[in-house]
Amino acid sequence: MAALGVATLSVARGSELAEPPPFTTVVCSSPLGGREYCGANTSKGIVLSKSTGDAPCLLGKTWGYDDGGVWVADGCSGEFVVAAPEAPAEPPPAPAAIPAPAPEEPELKVKKSPEYIPNVGFRLFEGEKGEVYLRLFSYVRYLNQKGLAPFYVDSFGDVHEVPIREDVQLNKVFIPFSGWFLTPKFRYYLYVWSQNPLQGEGAQVVAAGNLSYTFNRFLTVAGGITSLPSTRSTEGQFPYWLGVDDRLTSDEFFRGSYTSGFWIKGEILEGLNYMAMAAVNLSILGVSASQLDLGLNTQTFMLAWMPTTGEFGLYGAFGDYEDHQQVATRVGAHYTHSREDKQEQPGTDAIENTQIRLTDGNIVFTPELFGPGVVVDRVTYEMMSIDAGIKYKGFSLAGEFYQRWLSNFAGLNTGGIANIVDHGYQLQASGMVIPRKLQLYVSGAQIFGGPYGDDWEIRSGLNWYFMNERGLRFNGEYIRVHRSPVGYSAYPLPVGGTGDVINLNVEMNF
Asked: Is 96 within a domain?
């Protein structure tokens, strides 16, 4: 089976080396719900060459490594390529006899608990009946929007004020608990999530999550709240984006959000993954159950194919922090259909504000937006995206194309509203100029909205992993934007923003 996770495997180069260093294979297996550690020489990195167990091997989640070997967990079993053990050095000549020193007191070694696993968190409890992991994610943000124009004019000729900010916020606190109960096949993912710029507003704190049952690597059935897999960024990569907790405007404009429903996911073939979800709406955060229509009116389908290495880094994240020594590739496709009611849309100050907007920033349910006496109560939303990406030796390039259709407007005097078709794209390029330390990136996005106007942005930024670990980073971004169609308190851009924005963050994620 193709590898499902890849870590750096460095190969020495140079004219002074006559032949490549020898490598060997280490086999390491774990039962469902268990964890095993296998000693190995990982000084030159490690590669999962073959997965042999019933459960998937995911780097940082069900397998990883340290200076002394490789660990596997929760049914991951595989063959790992590592450097061959180094030959012992010749012993030095025996020194002249000297009196033996007095024996020292033996060092008292205490096993640390709870155990920390990078990108998974602290394992608080492990027993026959279950397992509990705890993670923490938070960041401090300095946001300077003083380079934005104070007003903008929408496509209908109306003038709007742009709320400009300069402040420092502990922008978000995210505390997930995960693990299994009674059987490793039954898993939970429960979390508390705050959005601190909304202090004093409704839905400033959310407690959510989901429950799932994994039959095998081909089928997991789940229910609860999750990110609607409508674009690549909502497949579960959070928070492993190039920026800290923010997307480009095109992604933010077209995507779905977190919502309630049922879903299935797994592998179809080696390197080909799927997910299908039936949900209540596009965004449940900030929406009560009494506001929802009857039925599961939102459907999303996702396919992701990784043809060369069978993986795309930790959680399929953006950027090549792992420093792939083989070319890793990915192609993905998403389709979402939803019949949305204006009552099912979150308020403008909701914790995760995903709304159906025109490209000029107006919400389609705004009374009399399309003319006097016109009130839209329902609309059909359809959106598709296609993405592709490549990673190699610390460099990555990724792009995504979006198209959205708004049709079947229902409500008062809506017969004259024509169907609306928007499309757009985003491109992101990054490079680890200092491995595990410094990453630079540039990105851009455009949205084409026909009579409602076009929007664009460009960004340049850096990530400084000042502890040589992914869990701590300083992120700095310069954003140049023209008519942002999206914006809310936790997002670095306001609706209608045109101009320059400085966005600085210190992120902790373990």
From this structure: no
pLDDT over threshold 80, residue 481: yes
Answer positive or negative: Cα dihedral of 76, 79, 82, 86.
positive
Same domain as 441, residue 485: yes
Are both 392 and 259 inside the same structural domain? Answer: yes
Position 19 in a domain: yes
Give the model confidence (pLDDT) of 339-397 as tens digits.
Answer: 999 887 776 555 666 689 999 999 999 999 999 999 999 999 999 999 999 999 999 99
Q: Are residues 68 and 152 in the same domain?
A: no
**At which residue do the structure tokens 């701590």 appear?**
472
Query: Amino acid identity of 466?
Result: F
Domain count, the chain: 2
Q: Are residues 126 and 49 in the same domain?
A: no
Contact between 40 and 67 under an 8 Å Cβ cutoff? The reply is: no
When pLDDT is averaged across residues 323-345 and rounded to a whole number, the result is 93
Question: Would residue 181 count as lying in a domain?
Answer: yes
* Beta-strand runs (E) in 347-497: 375-392, 395-412, 420-434, 438-448, 454-464, 472-482
pLDDT, residue 342, reads 87
Q: Which domain does 206 fall in, by range?
A: 117-509
Alpha-carbon distance of 257 to 280, in angstroms, equals 12
The whole-angstrom separation of Cα 210 and Cα 359 is: 33
pLDDT at 144 over 70: yes
- Dihedral Cα 367, 257, 459, 383, nearest 10 deg: -70
Domain holding 263: CATH number? 2.40.160.10
CA 213 to chain centre: 22
69 and 199: one domain? no
SS3 content of the chain, % helix, strand, coil (to 5): 5, 50, 45
- Per the listing, tokens 């194919």 go with 305
Residue 132 gets which letter from DSSP?
A: E
